[in-house]
Amino acid sequence: MVFFTKSWRRGFIVTLAVAAFSLSLISSAVAAVTLNGSGATFPKPLYDRYFSQMRSATGITVNYEGTGSGAGIKALISGTVDFAGSDALMSSAQIAQVKRGVMAVPTAGGAVAVVYNLPGVNNVRLSANAMKGIFEGKITRWNDPQIAGISGQAKNLPNTAIRVVVRADSSGTSFIFSNHLQAIGSSIKGAAQPSWPGGPLSGQGNPGVAGLVKQTAGAIGYVQDTYARQNKLQTAFIQNKKGRFVDANLAEAEKAFSGEAFPADFRLVEGNPNDGYPIVGLTWLLIYKQYPAAKADAIKKMVNWVMTTGQGINKQLEYTSIPQGTAQKVIQTVNQSVVARG
Question: For the chain, which domains are there?
């Protein structure tokens, strides 16, 4: 039998207390970490909800500013944020500038709605040819035969000038929209800041475009679907690859993504899906592969929460969710790839 002295027992108890206190301090330090991010406005309503609920659940504070995907990527490259949001893929040249390494975490998918302002006119249908003509500046009046002549289209479309509204900033929403135009044969190339012909009106972020369309008679533009509904804007029915005219909604966005396989780096882009609503895209959190220890742990916890609990919020705000199998692969990859550095 082994006997312990009172002094040894007191020392052992003190040691346990110190260890427990140290663990408590570490846990508190992780919970007290603040993460700062900026970028895409497309997922801003979703991220606001994510980070509010995540703070209540984990104690981690996440601040996210909707500055546009291009600005978010620039901030990530310069190291002024802990992560960025983007609906546009980083180029190889941009990735090479990130000395700490970078990976893309898909958080949601959604539709880019084509919105217009024609008082008294509902259910406008736009064919692929009409879409190309309008945004290339070749169709300039709403009663143009390529719009008014569509079977089932309202015959009383007004002889109103079309005022195209685009994003002023480098934008993932523009990336998604212009990728679709390119996929249906437009001369406009897919880019975060496309070259738009004809001198269109331009607004900052999804809110800026939505506001300009709302106040400009004859306007047409593109915004994330949630902004269209929040601002009570009319949305056009867009012709998809199967010839159906489809409204921007969650069910049709999910149909567009169904059957799509994510690549190993999770950077999936679809310019013109086989069915469903044809203008859809993913949005990503761009995170470093190296962080100070406390932030490395906080980033992993953030990604874990977003890819599990957070995915249950997506449909509430009309975003598609990431398939569960892919979400688990994302968590595993982040846990293995994100490391603490001195």
Answer: 6-109+283-341 (3.40.190.10), 111-257 (3.40.190.10)
